[in-house]
From TrEMBL:
This is VTT domain-containing protein. One of its GO terms (cellular component) is plasma membrane. It is a multi-pass membrane protein. Its main location: membrane. Keywords: Cell membrane, Membrane, Transmembrane, Transmembrane helix. It is found in: Cell membrane. It comes from the Bacteria. The chain crosses the membrane at residues 12-37, 57-78, 116-136, 142-162, 174-196. The lineage of its organism: Bacteria, Candidatus Nomuraibacteriota. Belongs to the DedA family. It comes from Candidatus Nomurabacteria bacterium CG1_02_31_12.
Length: 201
């Protein structure tokens, strides 16, 4: 927590600019090692900075949407080509097999809609396109939900930051609490699902 509080996220995002934002969202959306990257908080903060004139909001949403969609595409192809091997990957500091198990349960529960819904669930959203590839989901189905999910997720969270930045004076002073709240809300579906499954057993 102290580490988070010592980071000026807004300065970091201004420094990495459009290219850095693109690369982070691309990696978090579909690369095997990208699950720990801060997708939701990054989008919100970038939107907030756009409201202050640091970014063009239309270009930002377009860039993030493209990064999210192409990232998922890579994840899908990864799943088709070598995805099954990740089920035998040993646990490490960053990777835990339970991440795959949780994503697999999510995928089985929601089916093809998981590609869209998972956009709003951290960690799960990184592995869902891989599992869609492993399960050989029909490509047209995948790309449809991928585009919808990428657009809705990118626009909603980025615009939330943008509009709050316009409406609340000095909103940047409350950035850390807001980001922590966003992270908490992002994990609520997974928490509720865990509690529900525990109650069923």
């Amino acid at each position: 927590m102290d580490f988070l509080l010592n980071i000026d996220l807004s300065v970091l995002i201004q420094t990495i600019s459009y290219l850095g934002i693109f690369l982070i969202i691309f990696a978090e959306s579909g690369l095997f090692f990208g699950f720990f990257l801060p997708g939701d908080s990054l989008l919100f903060t970038a939107g907030l900075l756009a409201s202050q004139g640091y970014f063009d909001i239309a270009l930002l949403i377009l860039l993030i949407t493209f990064a999210a969609i192409t990232g998922d595409q890579i994840g899908y192809l990864f799943g088709i080509k070598i995805g099954p091997k990740i089920f035998t990957h040993d646990d490490s500091f960053f990777f835990k097999k339970k991440y795959i198990t949780n994503a697999e349960n999510f995928y089985q529960k929601h089916g093809k809609k998981a590609v869209l819904i998972a956009r709003f669930v951290p960690i799960v959203r990184t592995f869902i396109p891989i599992l869609a590839g492993v399960g050989k989901m029909h490509y047209r189905t995948f790309i449809t939900y991928n585009i919808l999910g990428g657009l809705i997720w990118s626009a909603c969270i980025t615009l939330l930051g943008y509009f709050l930045g316009q409406q609340i004076p000095n909103v940047d002073k409350y950035l850390i609490p807001i980001i922590l709240l966003i992270i908490l809300i992002s994990f609520l579906p997974a928490i509720f699902s865990y509690i529900y499954n525990k109650l069923k057993t």
